[in-house]
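2024-03-11 09:14:02 INFO worker-7 job=invfold-0412 stage=load source=structure_tokens
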């Protein structure tokens, strides 16, 4: 096994890009590749929101493979993630890596109290402004953005705010810009298509969507099964174990399905450093419009608005799930929103909510690196995830410095050296056959607007879809 030599650095950014509130944040940055790349810099944006980026540099470097020839790969921990993640212990214990678990209201209120009024500075627009400071610190005029899941939302918001600085935009598993349906209807409607596509590659012997509908009618466990399918769309997007498990459960033999659900949810217990639920909810509540309007709307009016929307749902409209499943997702989103009332008690005004593309109520504008620390050195060694050897030679395109060579590890003048330990991505988990694979650390595709993805080939694609 060969080690990957990466460059670790920090980017100092203001807490409030408008300058009205004091404070600074230090974001971890990791880079690999030639210092003067022929094709420029490629920034890979992970998802969530709430997932770090720097720790996954070795994995993404492997997954993208020769597609990175001629590029310098850069990843960063977006504000509120990674080792400086927004920490809400009660919420993290209750939800872990799940998007669909309904958290206790007490956990959300505790989180709102811990984060306080600074919650409004952890929006996608703030991250876009951080990215532009990173671009300036790296000394590049135009770069390539590659976003996955929520990372696509971030990439799009950056491109809208700073179009002149975008050379290429790569969007994978795109998050809808219009907001998150509180009933997760987009996810629910995608399930039949995805399961049938999985069956098209093998002989299933039955319709998996019909099997799923029958199992839910008998077991009334739609929310748990929906959460399982969303997680598998990240961890095992071919859904190899699902059709047989559903068919057997419909026939009265639920043991295989029960084992699958249990195995998937064992991976949900993850710390904030892997997926910060405090950052996740802070960003979603600030970024996305809700069915009842903005945060100024009183709680009784919110309840009335969402109950009215729930009454309009039909059984056919949530197939193959049931109405209880859709309403469970509505409760998950509504409970999160109820806790936003704590915000006003910490000094934020009800009218200060920002929509995507704004910073402190205004459109993002190009920013210049100000007061960024300078330094050289800061090299760090990072093992490829799972301890695997690289799948390609460390050399880059002809005439360029080898990828990961120590000579390529100098830190741009606009970034500060990172004195803390280097990158050590977690090893890939393995699961004995014939059970399903244990879920990896949360994927960039994990998002509050996630849905099952179409199954991919069993052969790892050259395009990276997730750190695993």
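2024-03-11 09:14:09 INFO worker-7 stage=emit residues=468
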């Amino acid at each position: 096994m060969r080690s990957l030599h990466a460059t670790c650095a920090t980017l100092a950014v203001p807490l409030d890009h408008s300058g009205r509130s004091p404070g600074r944040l230090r974001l971890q940055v990791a880079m690999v590749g030639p210092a003067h790349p022929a094709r420029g810099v490629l920034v890979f944006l992970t998802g969530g929101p709430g997932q770090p980026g720097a720790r996954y540099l070795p994995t993404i470097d492997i997954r993208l493979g020769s597609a990175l020839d001629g590029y310098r790969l850069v990843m960063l921990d977006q504000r509120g993630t990674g080792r400086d993640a927004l920490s809400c212990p009660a919420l993290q214990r209750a939800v872990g890596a799940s998007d669909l678990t309904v958290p206790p209201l007490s956990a959300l209120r505790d989180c709102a109290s811990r984060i306080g009024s600074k919650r409004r500075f952890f929006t996608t627009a703030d991250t876009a402004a951080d990215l532009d400071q990173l671009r300036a610190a790296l000394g590049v005029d135009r770069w390539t953005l590659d976003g996955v899941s929520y990372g696509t939302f971030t990439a799009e918001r950056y491109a809208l705010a700073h179009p002149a600085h975008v050379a290429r935009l790569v969007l994978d598993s795109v998050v809808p810009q219009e907001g998150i349906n509180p009933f997760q209807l987009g996810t629910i409607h995608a399930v039949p298509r995805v399961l049938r596509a999985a069956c098209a590659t093998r002989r299933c012997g039955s319709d998996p969507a019909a099997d799923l509908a029958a199992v839910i009618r008998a077991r009334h466990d739609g929310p748990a099964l929906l959460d399982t399918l969303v997680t598998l769309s990240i961890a095992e997007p071919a859904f190899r174990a699902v059709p047989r498990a559903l068919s057997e459960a419909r026939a009265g033999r639920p043991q295989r399905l029960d084992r699958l659900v249990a195995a998937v949810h064992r991976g949900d217990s993850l710390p904030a450093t892997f997926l910060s639920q405090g950052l996740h909810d802070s960003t979603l509540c600030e970024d996305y419009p809700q069915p009842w309007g903005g945060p100024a709307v009183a709680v009784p009016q919110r309840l009335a608005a969402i109950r009215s929307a729930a009454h309009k749902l039909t059984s056919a409209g949530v197939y193959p799930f049931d109405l209880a499943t859709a309403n469970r997702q509505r409760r998950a989103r509504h409970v999160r929103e109820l806790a936003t009332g704590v915000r006003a008690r910490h000094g934020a005004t009800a009218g200060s909510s920002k929509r995507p593309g704004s910073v402190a109520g205004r459109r993002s504008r190009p920013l210049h690196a100000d007061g960024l620390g300078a330094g050289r050195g800061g090299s760090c060694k990072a093992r490829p995830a799972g301890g695997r050897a690289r799948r390609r030679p460390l050399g880059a395109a002809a005439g360029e410095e080898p990828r990961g060579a120590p000579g390529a590890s100098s830190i741009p003048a606009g970034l500060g050296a990172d004195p803390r330990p280097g990158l050590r991505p977690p090893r890939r988990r393995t699961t004995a056959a014939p059970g399903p694979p244990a879920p990896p650390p949360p994927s960039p595709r994990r998002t509050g607007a996630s849905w099952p993805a179409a199954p991919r080939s069993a052969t790892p694609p050259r395009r990276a879809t997730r750190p695993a």
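2024-03-11 09:14:09 INFO worker-7 stage=report msg="The two ends are 18 Å apart (CA to CA)."
2024-03-11 09:14:10 INFO worker-7 job finished
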